[in-house]
Specification:
The chain has 121 residues and is mostly helical. Helices cover 65% and strands 3% of the residues. The protein has 5 helices and 2 strands. The protein has a two-stranded antiparallel ribbon with strand order 1-2. A hairpin with a 4-residue loop joins strand 1 and strand 2. Helix 2 crosses helix 3. The chain is globular.
Length: 121
């Protein structure tokens, strides 16, 4: 009997939870000089994976192109907002996390107060 694989949306959901837990762990790290950057990267990854899990569960494709790549996190969040699964405020907050991730990756992250990161986490 062939081995049954877990549904794609459940795999994405599990990965989203691991990324969110990693973001919290990174933010709470005392000695890491890149704790804010790491937390933002993992937090954005968690939101992106969660958005894709919801889209896959709703039977929407998350693929783009011919090589099997998936859509960007911004697009996944935008699609959820279009479907009415996120309101404008929720979508804007997640898009801000993604924007801060881009800044962190390119080493141009502005000073982000801990209170703001607490809110985003």
């Amino acid at each position: 009997m062939p081995k049954r694989t877990r549904r794609e949306y459940l795999q994405l959901l599990d990965a989203a939870k691991r990324a969110a837990e990693g973001a919290i762990g990174a933010f709470n790290s005392v000695r890491s000089p890149y704790r804010r950057e790491t937390a933002l990267i993992l937090l954005a990854n968690g939101w992106e994976l969660l958005a894709k899990a919801v889209l896959v569960h709703a039977k929407e494709s998350i693929l783009r192109g011919q090589r099997g790549e998936t859509i960007a996190g911004e697009m996944a969040v935008f699609r959820l907002q279009q479907k009415g699964l996120l309101d404008a405020t929720q979508s804007q907050t997640i898009q801000q996390v993604i924007s801060l991730r881009h800044s962190a990756i390119h080493h141009v992250l502005p000073p982000v107060p801990d209170e703001v990161l607490h809110h985003l986490l």
